[in-house]
Automatic annotation (TrEMBL):
Belongs to the glycosyl hydrolase family 6. This is Glucanase. Its EC number is 3.2.1.-. PANTHER family: 1,4-BETA-D-GLUCAN CELLOBIOHYDROLASE C-RELATED (PTHR34876:SF4), PTHR34876.
């Protein structure tokens, strides 16, 4: 079946969903418009394997990590953002594959935690950045995880700062709905250890969840799929009770194969989880964080920076030690 015909069929089949409780603004299903998920040819794992073919760890990292579909993260390091997202989704589209993207540039990013602090220079700068992000994707199919940790990172923020952040997220969703009609956007809902389900449901709703396709859980964390699924269902129960709608959710399973030991920043003894696929109690299980990429200068990644690929950590994650 041609891509154009698949697109038309997907849109027609999805039309009844437009009248369900609190749907996203998108009629088309990007997972039916493509033939599987896109493997980033320039991921940190791919680059390391290519640069170190004689390393004894390279074969295992290549087989178990580098060739698994994972998200590419976009932020201030990405250059002209519309060009960057356009090139990435364009490359995936040429291969009839579905790309996973993470938007990670919100103003006052990681304001309380600090390990990944940064982001746009102002709310208006972020609005411009995210509009270009969405415009680069345009009508091509994609999945976007919107600003990991943005709704869990409230501990040290004033109400004015919270309102400002929620307005930025609402504005971002408006841009995706306007410019990227074949993109599913998931607002990030943190993880089960961060905020109770009722609190997270309220934050999601106030930040515009009605406009999104769904929400994401466990991004860059280690908590089991079962615990995340229970939490996602609890969030949906709160959404239904308080606001009259529910949303699908996805779980980042990239590093949760051994669950968590209570530490979030480069803990030892973790393991890769279920590769990207649909099902498992969530709408999809995705690799959003690259296994082996550092969480920051901490734990087994002492001396590293956030996002740096650590081959020894990656190798140990394959075998769980």
């Amino acid at each position: 079946m041609s891509r154009r015909l698949r697109t038309l069929m997907a849109a027609l089949c999805a039309l009844p969903l437009a009248f369900a409780a609190a749907p996203s603004a998108h009629a088309a299903d990007p997972t039916t418009m493509t033939s599987g998920f896109y493997v980033d040819p320039d991921s940190s794992a791919k680059r390391w394997v290519a640069a170190n073919p004689g390393d004894g760890r390279a074969a295992a990292i290549n087989a178990s990590i580098a060739n698994t579909p994972m998200a590419r993260w976009f932020g201030s390091w990405s250059g002209t953002i519309g060009t960057a997202t356009g090139a990435y989704v364009g490359a995936a589209d040429q291969r009839d594959k579905l790309p996973l993207l993470v938007a990670y540039n919100i103003y006052n990013r990681d304001y309380c935690g600090g390990h990944s602090a940064g982001g746009a220079a102002s709310p208006s700068a972020y609005a411009n950045w995210i509009a270009q992000f969405a415009g680069g994707i345009a009508g091509r199919p994609a999945i976007v995880i919107l600003e990991p940790d943005s709704l869990g990172d409230y501990g040290c923020m004033t109400q004015a700062q919270i309102d400002e952040r929620e307005a930025m997220l609402t504005g971002a969703l408006t841009e995706f709905n306007r410019q990227a009609p074949n993109t599913w956007v998931y607002m990030d809902a943190g993880n089960p250890r961060w905020a109770d389900a009722a609190t997270m449901a309220r934050r999601l709703h106030e930040a515009g969840l009605r406009q999104a396709h769904g929400f994401s859980l466990n991004v860059s964390n280690y908590i089991t799929t079962a615990e995340n699924t229970a939490y996602g269902n609890a969030v949906n129960s709160e959404l239904a009770a308080r606001y009259g709608y529910t949303k699908p959710f996805v779980v980042d399973t990239s590093r949760n194969g051994n669950g968590t030991n209570g530490q979030w920043c480069n803990p030892s003894g973790r393991r890769i989880g279920t590769p990207t696929r649909t099902g498992g109690g969530a709408e999809m299980l995705l690799w959003i964080k690259t296994p082996g990429e550092s969480d920051g200068n901490c734990g087994v990644g002492t001396g590293s920076t956030a996002g740096q690929f650590l081959p020894e950590v990656a190798y140990k994650m394959i075998y769980g030690y």
